[in-house]
Amino acid sequence: MKCRHCAAPVTLPLVDLGTAPPSNAYLSAAALHAPERWYPLRVLVCENCWLVQTEDFAEAHELFDANYAYFSSFSSSWLVHAQAYVTAMVQRFGLGAHSQVVEIAANDGYLLQYVAQRGIPCLGVEPTASTAAAARAKGITVVERFFGVALAQELRAQGHRADLMAANNVLAHVPDINDFVAGFATLLKPTGVATFEFPHLLALVQQCQFDTLYHEHFSYLSLTAVQRIFAASGLAVFDVQELPTHGGSLRVFAQRSDASTPRPTEPAVAALLAREVQAGVCSADFYSDFQLQALRIKRELLSFLIDAQARGRKVAAYGAAAKGNTLLNFAGVRPDLLPYVVDKNPAKQGKFLPGSRIPIVDEAHLRADRPDVVLILPWNLRDEIMAQLAYVREWGGQLVTAVPELEFL
């Protein structure tokens, strides 16, 4: 395998999670009578540019199809995050009616709705039909395509030039990361700014957030790797912020390398790069213990579920999230140990988790069943979900997470 950024041979393993179907390929009842497509799920590390990446088996169009079921607006805390982002960017960069904001991977309009409310012209790029339709229903103009240099050139020829480009939780999702990043340099105005948010590799490895690994995530990113990738595609990093989202994320600010009036590089950039080097991101040893920690988490979850069943305790799950599918499939959990998972997204209710084929139900089912324990699969939203499920304690129920270790909340 060659690195998707620098093309160097990639041999250093991070983890082998066996095989799994695409994590967002939820199944209908009819699909239960047909086979699923499973792919190896192996993640490797490039020792030349230190980009961590999945071994390629599935194509992007197979993973992000018309039935893609991840809708950002079903998380209230993520909406708060998006609204705060818009407020901060408007203030910092003086955006107004004269500006243009372009969001790549606009999903269901969760973020651009707040841009539009301020009267700022905006455009979304979103390749999945289901979420693009939801964004259009909010009045957002959406181009239903995968983004890269070719689309950026088309949009530029149509008169679109961005003062701000936003890319939240998409940089990890693109197979051709060089073409994707170069598209930003193409579409930005000479004075424009692009921001990218993604889970931070440092937190992922140190906390063994292995359930964040799935086929839809082609790359796992440190600032060290991102700075190199950006520089090779015409972007320069000038600021970085650390965020609590998704178990620890970065918001990276970039400008065109040939910016007419370049913004000064903030001290936070050098400080974080130094911290990554000190932690060992640029050394093989940093990645050596990850497989053993993933196996520990798997064993802890299985032991807990088997013990609960032996004691006659009912366990349910909350959140039909992609990360939950990675965890359950790696652990080999099936409906005999976990009979259902609750999700408030109607697009998922009535379907089944890929691989494990655990049924997805609405919250009324949880209230009626009154399980002894609810396993929160999207642990990154645990505070939001704990508040939402506070009523579980009324019948003596407990809430638990499995990553980075089994913890009763």
Please characterize this protein's 3D structure.
The protein has 409 residues and is an alpha/beta fold. 32% of the residues lie in helices and 21% in strands. The protein has helices at residues 60-63, 76-93, 112-117, 129-137, 149-157, 177-187, 201-206, 223-232, 267-279, 290-310, 322-331, 363-369, 382-388, and strands at 12-20, 39-45, 52-54, 101-104, 122-125, 142-143, 162-168, 188-199, 219-220, 235-243, 249-256, 315-318, 341-342, 360-361, 373-376, 398-401, 407-408. The strands form three sheets. Strands 6-5-4-7-8-11-10 form a seven-stranded mixed sheet.
Number of strands: 17
Q: What is the mean pLDDT?
A: 93
What is the strand content?
15-25%
Q: What separation lies between the terminal Cα atoms? A: 42 Å
The count of helical stretches stands at 13
Q: How many whole angstroms does the radius of gyration measure?
A: 21 Å
> Topology as H/E string?
EEEHHEHEHEHEHEHEHEEHHEHEEHEHEE
| Structure classification | alpha/beta
Question: What's the shape?
Answer: globular
- Main sheet overview: 7 strands, mixed
Low-confidence stretches at least 5 residues in length (pLDDT < 50)?
none
Roughly what percent helix?
25-40%
Q: How is the largest sheet built, in terms of strand order?
A: 6-5-4-7-8-11-10
Keywords:
single chain; alpha/beta; seven-stranded mixed β-sheet; six-stranded mixed β-sheet
Topology:
Blueprint: E1 12-20, E2 39-45, E3 52-54, H1 60-63, H2 76-93, E4 101-104, H3 112-117, E5 122-125, H4 129-137, E6 142-143, H5 149-157, E7 162-168, H6 177-187, E8 188-199, H7 201-206, E9 219-220, H8 223-232, E10 235-243, E11 249-256, H9 267-279, H10 290-310, E12 315-318, H11 322-331, E13 341-342, E14 360-361, H12 363-369, E15 373-376, H13 382-388, E16 398-401, E17 407-408
Parallel strand pairs: 4-5, 4-7, 5-6, 7-8, 12-13, 12-15, 13-14, 15-16
Antiparallel strand pairs: 1-2, 2-3, 3-9, 8-11, 10-11, 16-17
Helix pairs in contact: 5-6
